[in-house]
Hints:
By secondary structure, the protein is mainly beta.
Amino acid sequence: MTDSKTISKDWLLPGAVCDAQSVTADWQPVAADLIDGVVVREAKTMARGTGALTELWRADWGVDDEPVRQVFQNTIEPGGYSAWHAHAVAIDRITVNLGQLTMVLYDARQTSPTFGRLNEFHLTAMRPTLVTIPPKVWHGVVNRTGVVASLVNMPDVAYTYEAPDHWRVPADSPDVPYRIV
């Protein structure tokens, strides 16, 4: 454990700042400024003789009490993006299973205690992390790498073809204070 009060400061460069804690002792992300209702949980990967196994979602994690009603994978080409969208009733549970993606969430819920807050996550298959997005939170992903990336979503409500619970605004919407492209 590092105790900053007992460390000699004669080696520090001007303006040097100590990193804030980013994970707990059990490797769960520390994220004190999450949008209300958002849950982030890093998954653990178990090496096996033939590869690796990663649990992406379990009810006993206590992330939420809603069932998984659909599972889908979405590939995103280099430079590709999907933004901005939100759901009136569905909960998204998203993890990256190939490559790297930047995911951004925006809370436009006027009655939310985190109204106006942005969350930005840099997600990678190397450290699988589940991001649970509550209804009415706008979100988008972008692939800023040079290789294809893929995500898996396990929403609590299956996509309804006849009446989609999928609301969109353009990626460059002036109503979202983040430029995803």
